[in-house]
Amino acid sequence: MRKTKNILIGALLLLLAFFMVQPACAQLRFNFGKGSPLRKLQMAELAISNLYVDTVNENKLVEDGIRGMLEKLDPHSSYSPASEAKSLEEGLNGGFDGIGVQFNMLQDTLVVIQTVVKGPSEKVGILPGDRIVAVNDTAIAGVKMDKAEIMRRLRGRRGTVAHLKIIRRGVSHPLTFNVVRDKIPLKTLDAAYMIRPGVGYIRLSSFGMKSDEEVAVALDSLKKQGMKDLIFDLQDNGGGYLQAAVAIAQEFLQPGDLIVYTQGRVSPRQDFNSGQRGRFRDGRLVVLINEFSASAAEIVTGSVQDQDRGTVVGRRSFGKGLVQRPIPFEDGSMMRLTVAHYYTPSGRCIQKPYKKGDLKDYEMDFDNRYKHGELTNVDSIHLDKSHTYYTLRKHRPVYGGGGIMPDVFVPLDTLQYTAYHRKLMMSNVVMDNYLRYVDNSRKALKKHYKTFEAFNSDYTVPDDLIAKIREDGKKQKIEPKDDAELQRTLPYLKLQLKALVARDLWDMNEYFKIMNESNAIVQKGIQVIEGK
Q1: How many CA atoms lie within 13 A of 361 on its CB side?
Q2: Residues 306, 333, 352, 365: which is the catalytic one?
Q3: Over the stretch 196-221, which tens digit does the pLDDT of each residue have?
Q4: Three-state SS for 434?
Q5: Residue 189 Cα to chain centre, angstroms
């Protein structure tokens, strides 16, 4: 009995000591007294780990307990084990240590698509099309190694050396490269170019730690190219850091303008206002959103709309108005706990409704929108008029409680992306055949098309590539239901393949230069800028 009591006291002291050294928990109060919930939880864990009939994994037991508690809260509070937490942080922190290549898996072999400009691999002479078959004398090709494991072997601490064995077309013997790993930037800015004379275009995929720097560089570059007006594309942008959203919104708003404010049960109201920076405060501005634009993307959009700075074009956004605080644990795992709501300048919280503990219903929101017709018909959108607010300059009505409704609605084109096309993509038939085609044709294509403009004007997707995709799809029992569906599929499939080839030969700018010409939301944005 005394031993059990000592274990309990020791465990409680360790737990208390742990929280005392965690910066994220410095302001928390703990009650270990008799009858306290924390004491009850700790005693339950001790009882299970020491007395349960079968052996238990104590770490997993605690992790499951944390997940169980969070599942009963809102849909965005979450727990990530160390491996996932590190990956999530890398995606937002602007980079990781590695060799600096973009790659795809062709069957079970890693094929380099591009090398990072001035990165470690480019410096030693690795080229697009090279096949990395071994890392530090361990084969990674032909052994069905998991992609995550391959990435783990390629990445490593800055300054360490990766010994790579490479197979290159036209070279009879394997090549060996010693690549010194370095910091590899992860860009959140997908594209920035002049989409029309005088009209710049910027597309941002997420809000990372360095996104504001990327946007600032893009704005400066576009202004030098004659930009007077801007289309800022936040379609499919799932958000990220609130601070990045605030920094980017400042580029468009006047000094002192309220961008967003946050407030929670124990978190006092905190206002975020625009400062003196502002590279684009005068020209016409259009912000593009869709049903997958969320969180930080909605902060920027909401500030632009509420301050009457620009026009929002697209479809109703996701509706995430909750702020998560990262709580790191000693083993590298992390809990993201919702601590506040955020509110746009007019005072609206755009968080869509949810029931605590009912994640399934929350995740079905997109399907419900589709079934109710609101993605295709503006008259099917029923806004909650009890949450009516007004923009700060023109006093236009805007609504809270369910995402941001654009000023100009663009319906989803259900005919463009067919069920047949979707099945081909999900089965990897399109990507596998595209990779083989580019791998075989890269040199010839680069020799023939000296510039993107020549490629965009003259290149057509070969008929035999389309035939091979259809043939491989048929082998997996993927076929169009009729000739009409096939004819609807082919134009968009060919456009997509052309854009992918352009991305391989040049970069993401060229990919979006092609795809945007058929993107209905982008095209409507251009029309709004041009006053049509």
Answers
A1: 8
A2: 306
A3: 999 999 999 999 989 999 999 999 99
A4: helix
A5: 11
**What pLDDT score does 7 carry?**
44
Say if CB 242 and CB 302 are below 8 A apart: no
Structure tokens at 485: 């569906």
> Is-catalytic flag, 518?
no
Any catalytic annotation for residue 306?
yes
458 annotated active-site: no
Q: Can you tell me which residue has the tokens 């990045």? A: 244
User: Rg of the chain's alpha carbons, rounded to an integer?
Assistant: 26
Task: Give strand ranges (E) for 171-304.
Answer: 175-180, 182-185, 189-196, 199-204, 229-233, 258-263, 270-273, 285-289
Q: By the 8 A CB rule, do 315 and 406 touch?
A: yes
pLDDT band of 5, cuts 50, 70, 90: very low
Segment 73-123, tens digit of pLDDT: 888 888 888 877 777 666 566 667 889 888 877 777 888 877 887 788 888
Extended beta strands in 405-471, E state: 408-409
HSE of 503 in the Cβ direction (CA atoms, 13 Å)?
18
Q: Which amino acid, one-letter code, is at 152? A: R
Q: pLDDT of 243-265, one tens digit each?
A: 999 999 999 999 999 999 999 99
Nearest to 206 by CA among 97, 293, 334: 293
CA 431 to chain centre: 20
| CA atoms of 399 and 188, how far apart (whole Å) | 29
CA distance 7 to 234: 53
Residues 295, 317, 333, 346: which is the catalytic one? Answer: 295
Domains, the chain, in order of start with CATH, read 2-86 (no CATH), 95-185 (2.30.42.10), 189-412 (3.90.226.10), 419-524 (no CATH)
Q: What whole-number distance in Å separates Cα of residue 424 and Cα of residue 496?
A: 13
Q: Is the pLDDT of residue 358 over 80?
A: no
Per-residue pLDDT of 433-487, as tens digits, reads 998 899 889 889 999 999 999 999 999 999 999 999 999 999 999 999 999 999 9
**By the 8 A CB rule, do 107 and 353 touch?**
no
d(CA 51, CA 32) in angstroms, rounded, equals 22
Beta-carbon count within 10 A of 310 CB? 25
Cα–Cα distance measured from residue 485 to residue 421, given in angstroms and rounded to the nearest whole number: 9
Q: For residue 523, what is the DSSP state?
A: H
Cα–Cα distance measured from residue 507 to residue 203, given in angstroms and rounded to the nearest whole number: 14
User: Checking phi first, is residue 208 left (phi over 0); if not, alpha (psi -120 to 50) or beta?
Assistant: beta
By the 8 A CB rule, do 73 and 79 touch?
no
Which residue type is seen at 135?
V
Buried b (16+ CB within 10 A) or exposed e, 319-338: bbbbbbeebbbeeebbbbbb
Q: What is the DSSP letter of 33?
A: S
Alpha-carbon distance of 404 to 306, in angstroms, equals 10
Catalytic residue among 210, 320, 498, 513: 320
